[in-house]
Amino acid sequence: MTCATDFLPDDIQALKALVTAQRGEIEHLKLMIAKLRRMQFGRRSEQLDGMLDQLQLTLEELQVSQAALASPPPAQSRPRTPVRRKPLPEHLPREIHVHRPDAQCPGCGGELRHLGDDVAEVLEYVPARFKVIRHVRPKLACRCCDGIVQVPAPSRPISRGLAGPGLLAHVLVSKYVDHLPLYRQSEIYAREGVSLERSTMADWIGEASRLLQPLVSRLRQHIMAANKVHADDTPIAVLAPGQGKTKTGRLWTYVRDERPAGSSTPPAVWFAYSPDRKGEHPRAHLRGFAGTLQADGYAGFAQLYASGTIHEAACWAHARRKFFDLHKALASPIAAEALQRIGALYAIEAEIRGQPPDQRRAVRQRRASPLLAHMHIWLNHTLTQLPPKSALSGAIHYALARWQALTRYCADGRIEIDNNAAERALRAVALGRKNFLFAGSDAGGERAAAIYSLVGSAKLNALNPQAYLTHVLERIADYPINQLDDLLPWNIALPTLEHEAA
């Protein structure tokens, strides 16, 4: 009969090595369990979403109850206390209602003279409304030659289409900015007494995206002309034709934003769709680009770096996230120290954000480079103290394997410490994905990429996406192709758009 101890090695050193390896495996399993629990009960979980919604409702009810309790009965009076509110936006239209007393004093009948005014503003909401614009083109006949004269028909975004540019822009923004699927929009419009079928609006989106495609191409050219581009991708479910099932496509984002380095070059974002995540897609997207690509550790980018024309800048936010997960799951002191060291690097970046590249480089060389050198020594030394297969070893290996790319930002003031610019651009996709469930086809993914590019670039340039798209759709059908750059977000004045949106 054998027992468990029969399989243990006799050598003490071998026994210690086995114990160390098992400890590493236990730590790894604990981390995996913690990650799975966060996936099950974390932010993406419907269960937690429901709990958060319930807590929000509870908070609202408590606030309403407190307000009701604080309000005295009508018969009582309370001393007036000054109310400090944020002033209402100046750009909103004002209606002036003057509440004038009678011309004579109610007490003695004497004549009243003006002393001044008490002014109070109330914020009101006027529900969105539809209107019909009827274009009438009189036909005139010449008495001399019997010729007929008539003004040409006004241009429409969609030839012979029912939707005006404002309505088209509203449907696009509702879907891709406010994340309202078309069937929900149809229900909302029905409450206004307007019947718009989902299929009709789908046709509008298809026609609008085709019309806007040349402008999207201009965005891509602007981004690829930069010397540094942020890149990232995210999955999107796509309906597989004829199967009734979904497949996983990808939306790629490429961002040009040089404002943190003190540049006035306009920021922009370009999205591209692909049916899978093969490396050939980013290689095609970035064809002709030369400079620094700031991205995560996706292996599909490796061939781009091998060419020598594109240099890799890694993302400290990704490296930090691995230590953060370990610290949250295991309360690891080593992970905590790594987070503290990375936090010191970010504190330097906060101080120099918006300064010119040469100044940023000088500060980084003087302050961040020594911190990085010490961190490199500490990471290598710590690695010798850990089991090879532990989760902490994996996090350290991730950083050390990309050390040159992670520290490249110190030698170039144009580069950022992380890839958060691209991650921010993908947030709209994540919210939309939650509501849309899936794209209808590969063509639907390409349409989504086009609209996300335009509305994302509008927001980066502080434009109202609805006003921007309205402005563009009013003009683009007949706009000279060689002057199309006039319709890029940074070439349009914001006050004009605010007026048009109103």
From TrEMBL:
Superkingdom to which the source organism belongs: Bacteria
Residues in Transposase TnpC homeodomain domain copies: 28-95
Record-annotated Transposase IS66 central domain positions: 160-446
Residues in Transposase IS66 zinc-finger binding domain copies: 103-146
InterPro entries hit by this protein: IS66_C, Transposase-related, Transposase_IS66_central, Transposase_TnpC_homeodom, Znf_dom_IS66
Domain Transposase IS66 C-terminal positions: 453-490
Region annotation (Disordered) ranges: 66-87
One Pfam family it belongs to: zf-IS66
PANTHER family named among the record's database cross-references: BLL1576 PROTEIN (PTHR33678:SF1)
Protein's name in the database: IS66 family transposase
Annotated organism of origin: Stutzerimonas stutzeri (Pseudomonas stutzeri)
